[in-house]
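job 3f2a | input accepted
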Amino acid sequence: MSQGAPPDGEWFRRLADHGALVFFILRVQPDLAFEFINDALESQIGVTAGEALADPAAVLGRIDAASAERLAEALALPPGSETTVELVWRHRDGHERASRIRARSRQREDGSVVLEGTARDITQLREAEVELQLSEKRHRLMAENAWEVIWTMAMDTTITYVSPAVEQVRGLTPEEAMSESLAEALTPESVQIALGYFQELFEAQEKGAELPVFHGEVDFYRKDGSVMSADLQVIPHVGDDGHIVELLGVSRDISERKRVEAELRKSEERARLMAENAWEIIWTAGPDGTATYVNAAVERVRGITVEQAMDQPLEEIYTPSSADGIRTYFRDLHAAIRRGEDPPVYREEHEQYRADGSIMVSETQVIPHLDKNGRLVEIIGVTRDISARKKAEADLRRSEERYRRLAENAWDVVWTMDMDARITYVSPSIHRVLGITPEDAMFATLRQTLTPQSEASVLDYFRRLWAAIENGTEPPVLRDEHEYRRSDGSTLIGELQIVPNVDADGRVVEVLGVTRDISQRKAFEAELLRLAVTDALTGVWNRRHGEQLFQAELTDARETGRPLTLLMLDIDHFKSINDRYGHQAGDRVLIEVSRRLQQGLPSTDVVARWGGEEFVILLRDADIEDAVVTAEKLRGLIADNVFLDAGLVTASIGAAELTAGDDLDSWLAHADEALYKAKRSGRNAVRAY
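job 3f2a | predicted structure (689 res):
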């Protein structure tokens, strides 16, 4: 029985008309309290009318956050205003319920403000909408090859929406279709069918009867004037007030469907032929799991006949664990269908018995086939022998493990990078080479691991790589020497090779890099170079390299016009030194002379041992007068200081300035001639050419 202050006669009349509704009077001001609420409240949210009258929070506290905002707006309505809101409640049983509230605000003579209204339970309506979506999905799957035109129509026969498919079906744009009248869209006979359906709708609405849904065939005009038959379904859309708002229609071209049906028959025949000759085992089973078809591939794959396969129970087909997996799937499948859910598709790997008792690894895919009512018609399965693939995968894993171990124990640093420029792997050898852990290396920047010039080189490569990927050209490979920073602050020279890893479609999927420490090799090469260009005894340039340096300076001087002078120096009486003090003492004299020459010259000048006790010196930016002064200085450094192994040693020096007509040979000849002048003058002298 309803609770609270008795409402007036008008309210009782409304209650009689709408007994399924919750009717309420909620005082808003000066305080919040229910003055009246009927017993229908309990069926909607599980709260009795008495509980609501005792404490309004027993009702209002059961709404969700979004509903609370809408309720607050309703409670703030100015007197004389009306509103309609939808609220979501938490039923006492834990489920969510939805209600549509219609209320008006009224101020009474005593100044209090009340909200009077009704609440309709729309939970089933929402559930029906969800079920409708599922139903629409099922119908879409059943008719996935059909071209459907979806449209809406107002009750004055004005088309308010047409889907783009109308252009494929009737050759009209949606705008053209929306502007058509019934007589322009339908043949006369179909117009009469449409008008008859409208009449049925109006009569049913006037009587309060269930509104009919139209499903039949009608004829449409195409844009070219031809007639097409369509399967038409029309559903009335009813508004909150119970009146028809619009009609929703779906038109399907039957001629296309018939063509598809014919193609389907051919396709089924092709599918049968393909199934009979397929390498995979194709099979079907009834809802109870009994086999209804197995193709001939079962004989090749499992070594049994089709008849034997049809009669085998699961225990004879699968190993125990695999058979349990199949049974579990069938239980889940039937449970999902009973609940009205989309049936699960099954794809798993199993172990099956062959006729000889051996076990094969297979991949089985199961697709449930449901009719239009959602009932399971049959189960379609495809079983593929993947034993060879599984063996290949195992071999690949072993191969990857071998290569991983190689990388883990390699002297070179091996690393990979994905296409988001993230380092995905660095081998442990990074610690030996750079002194950092693989983890630190994976998050280090180029600037932290490379010197500036090497960093710029690597960045340039990656710019060229990204450009090649974007342009679809062949990605470049990098192989170059770079200078790396070690954790202790020192640097080393590394040979870096970067190779893009390209998949079967030609896409770069990752970058593989190998860094090799070549510091020792570079040091060895530098030593070889030093030995190739220097005199082994004295450490100054040897004759061959000296000639190369002199020729380069000569060429540059001709272009710039700057002066150059050669000094040719010969140690006086060197044979006597060897004879008197021995060859080792003579060697030490040569070494000391070389040291004094380099000590007395700027680093820009060139000293080369020409052979035996002869040296040739190139003075940059020196004319003959400057050269003679420098030569006298060098002569004095030799003659004025005693040699420990040979006592006093002197040298004769000839000087020749480069002239316009000189080449290297003539220039050297001039210096040699000046040297002999010095020797003929009594030695320990300097003479100019």
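job 3f2a | Residues 118 and 378 are 49 Å apart (CA to CA).
job 3f2a | closed
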